């Protein structure tokens, strides 16, 4: 498969790492068992994160080791980690990834290009462990931006009515599934995904919403914020679910505004925070720093 735009580095000083993640019911001795497992591999740990949720009694960890310290084929390493995780219970969730293998993504947009421009610039300059396979949009406006980076741009117009919208989403699903990306990024894609696509892409579709959720869900949140007279506007990066703007939250931030700011000025100020929140949230996802349990996220930010 052709790679069109990808990062020049792996964001770890070009040091190849294996990243182990695990979430399971908590119990005494898990940390010791993990340490012994990695020690038996000869694994040189360069980053270790742990969190035990006292409410759900659920344990989370992320471990990064130098790949050159492990004398094992990656497929065998995956099998060994899976067998270890399965001993911790049938509900354990595990993963091991190789930073030498960059994740592949699809970016979906509408007319506003600030988030797309920011993400493509970061990837082009080697700041992200990601390669972009294509950009998909329901408008032709941002095609020149994608072409500048040599990325295929698919314009899928939405015809009026529910039937036209369904046909457009079927075409989008075909384009996305043909690539089978690790992540689908809704970078101000101003359409609501149908429930079947939310389910199909669960856990790998993330969105930037131009509001500090759960406030001002849905369309025109800046207009809602202006009417309410808020003093802070924000943005939220979250997983996409069939429950509108209510998926598990990955990252949030705010920007101060005053009574003197018009709605247009709030929109302008908000663009800056949208870019930062999208960039941080996507990075956390790409680096396997995000774990979800009971609709809440654990984010290992180093």
Characterize the structure shown.
By secondary structure, the protein is α/β, with parallel strands linked by helices. The protein folds into 2 domains: 17-98, Alpha-Beta Plaits; 103-299, Formyl transferase, N-terminal domain (Rossmann fold, 3-Layer(aba) Sandwich), CATH 3.40.50.170. Helices cover 33% and strands 29% of the residues. It contains 8 helices and 14 strands. It has helices spanning 30-41, 74-86, 114-124, 143-148, 161-179, 195-200, 221-228, 263-286, and strands at residues 5-6, 17-25, 44-53, 58-66, 93-98, 103-109, 130-137, 153-155, 183-186, 205-209, 232-239, 249-256, 290-293, 296-299. Strands 1, 6, 7, 8, 9, 10, 11 and 12 form an 8-stranded mixed β-sheet that branches. The protein has a 4-stranded antiparallel β-sheet with strand order 3-4-2-5, with helices on one face. A two-stranded antiparallel sheet has the order 13-14. Helix 3 runs parallel beside helix 8 and helix 7 packs across helix 8.
